[in-house]
Amino acid sequence: NAKAAGRNRFAIFGPHMDDLVQDRRELEGDLRLAVRNRRDLEVYFQPVYAAPNGALYGAEALLRWKHPARGLISPEVFIPIAEECGVITQLGDLVLEEACLAAQRWPDLEIAINASPLELRNEAYALRVIAAVNKHKIDPARLEIEITEGTLLDSAGECQRNIEALRSVGVRIALDDFGTGFSGFGRLQYVAVDRIKIDKSFVDGFDSQEAGNRAIVEAMIRLARAKGLKTTAEGVETEEQRAILKELGCDHLQGYLLSKPMTKDAFDRMVGTNVIDLQAKR
Ligand code: C2E
Ligand code: MG
Ligand code: MG
Ligand code: MG
């Protein structure tokens, strides 16, 4: 009967669920340790290029967790865990610090970091960012904070206050993964941002069946221009995508076609500033 079947199902799935919960607890514990000891966490940088001439323009800081036993764990997996177990602020601070150091090392580049909605909901967020910028004596306009549409939906208004405080000192705000959330175009009326980052899912469709994507991206770029916003296309993987985006007037390009995220040292080698380091070590 149904009851027996139910019990049976429990017998089959029960241990499996326990494993998942156990697994998750273990990861949480490991992440706490990694954050506390500043261990196994490394900030990578993905170059961003100017679309018209291909010149190096900046870099996005992307966090990596190299788990000692499980290997590389994606931020798509560990950022939500960090948010749930309350270490996202420490992670954000770590990335902010590395981003400021990067801005010092690469004086001609703009550095972008990703901020979780939870971070922006904290009333002290803008103050922490501004303190870091001041401490490292970098031009605030060279730091960009990437937020998601979810952040803009915050009803308490704390996120908006942080955004306004940051922009008032010159820090830039970018709307990440643009087009994938629920707010989209409408929300741009209420919150002032400096840039939209067109999500990879729209760029993907260019060279496939989804001809509609090109029209959507065209509309996004036109809207951004009308509002005086910069545009970055993420996830550019083919020459064809690059050519179309350039033609549509997209400002900046980011993607595996141009470069994958890399370590700070690899980035140094690429831009050639490692000379300074070598001199310091002698
Ligand atoms: P995102 O901010 O949209 O970052 C872009 C993601 O696309 C990165 O994945 C990047 O490596 C990947 N990507 C770039 N170009 C290409 C391409 O041509 N093809 C493909 N397939 N992928 C490309 P990543 O580094 O795994 O990060 C995933 C997400 O995790 C980020 O998405 C961001 O939302 C979040 N994240 C990463 N670092 C941080 C961080 O320090 N703090 C917070 N709060 N979130 C972070
Ligand atoms: Mg981003
Ligand atoms: Mg993105
Ligand atoms: Mg994304």
Automatic annotation (TrEMBL):
<feature type="domain" description="EAL">
    <location>
        <begin position="24"/>
        <end position="275"/>
    </location>
</feature>
<protein>
    <submittedName>
        <fullName>Diguanylate cyclase/phosphodiesterase</fullName>
    </submittedName>
</protein>
